[in-house]
Amino acid sequence: MLDKILGGLFGVAIGDALGATTEFMSQKEIEAEHGIVKDIIGGGCWDVQPGETTDDTAMTIAVAKGIITNFEDPIEDIGRQFLLWKNTNPIDIGITIRVVFKHFEGNWFEAAKRAHDILDGRSAGNGSLMRCLPVALAYYEIYKMEQISVAQSKMTHFDDLASEACIIYNRIAHRLLRNDDLKTSILAEIKNTRYEKISSLKPDCPADGFVVNSMKWALYWLLNYVSFEEVVIGATNIGGDSDTIAAIAGGLKGLEVGYNNLPNHYKNKILDKEQLADLANQLFEIRERETNA
Ligand SMILES: [Mg+2]
């Protein structure tokens, strides 16, 4: 179980660190500049260090810390962690979350609704999906797991499309933690949803920050590629919102294969590796405690 939890968190961070090199680039631009990006080399639009991660990992860490602080009712603590992160002047904050921060006056859900209105109803970004995995890692009980998955989404992303994607994603993660097979888990959870038609054909939508498109691309890589490397390299080299899509896909794939099976040359590069390992241990302890309660 600990190996899976570690694999999930490192899967997010590795996808983020790899994809940071190609974020906002087109496939053609990536080919011209890099050929194919297979290693964590840094650079990109944020000029990151090799192994440096971005908002995807930072907000995943924030969600994990909030849950660790207050397992029963983590939303306020998750919010406190978001604000601590914001105060570090991060290199990248997604549009929806930036507007929410600007209008936050003590109630996250009200700020999310205001942001939704200010953005003319476009609050279905992928920013709550990219950070939601710690909820599935900590909460064994599926009803509670779904409830917190939705709440951590709604506190910044008013649109139901965002919370719907978080539920499907974390239900897949929940199955992986029971040792179910990844493809079987995905196919079971996307049945009768808008994601049902994901096939061996590349999704007919841009690999951008709209949560439905990001989810379609992440599921496409997960359903059609076998190894962890293939999944995160695939997502990285399409460009667009590549760091987030690689993080979303990398989280589930890392959970499936486990930390010990993640490539060393990726794991060792992650600058935040001690913090991620510490958080994985704490989430594991919480899960064990709750499972045995
Ligand atoms: Mg990012």
Overall average residue pLDDT: 97
The distinct bound ligands, ions and cofactors come out as: magnesium ion
Q: Report on the biggest sheet.
A: none
Q: Any low-confidence stretches, pLDDT <50, length ≥5? A: none
Rg is: 17 Å
The CATH superfamily bears the name ADP-ribosylation/Crystallin J1
Query: What's the helical proportion of residues?
Result: 55-70%
Number of helices: 15
Say how many strands there are. 0
Q: Looking at CATH, which topology would you report? A: ADP-ribosylglycohydrolase fold
Secondary-structure arrangement, i.e. CATH architecture: Orthogonal Bundle
The proportion of strand residues reads: under 5%
Brief summary:
The chain is mainly α. 62% of the residues lie in helices and 0% in strands.
What does this structure look like?
This protein is globular. Helix 12 runs antiparallel to helix 13. The longest helix has 19 residues, at 273-291. By secondary structure, the protein is mainly α. It has a single domain (2-291), classed as ADP-ribosylation/Crystallin J1 (ADP-ribosylglycohydrolase fold), CATH 1.10.4080. It contains 15 helices and no strands. Bound molecules: magnesium ion (MG). The site of magnesium ion has 6 residues, from helix 3 and helix 13.
